[in-house]
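Sorry to interrupt, but I need a hand with the structure work. I would like you to pick a protein and set down its sequence and fold. Please put the record directly below this note.
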Amino acid sequence: MLLNKNLTCCIPTPRGNVDYDPADQIDISDLVYLVDYMFSQGPEPPCWEEANVDGSGPATPPDEGSDDIDISDLVHLVDYMFNGGPPPADCP
C-alpha cells in the first residue's frame, strides 16, 4: 500500500520503519524491504521519509525529482541493527 506522497508519514521517532508496520518497529523486515527495493525492483517504500534512514536530503520520491534513498541508508540501517551503530535520524 503506497501512501499519499504529500502526506507526512514519518512519526516523531527515529526513521527506519521502512515497511511501515503499524507497531513502528525497526527489524529485519525493514532491512529486507530496503534491499528488495534497491536491488530487486521491489515496491517503493510506503513512507519515503522512513526509508531515508540517514536523513540526508529532502526525502522526496524519485518521481518528484529526487532519489534520497541510497546505499548510505542501507549501510546506516545495517550498522544500527548489527553493530550497535548510531540510531536512524529522527523524523522531521
Notes: The two ends are 22 Å apart (CA to CA). Residues 1-6 have pLDDT under 50 and may be disordered. The helical segments are 28-39, 48-51, 71-83.
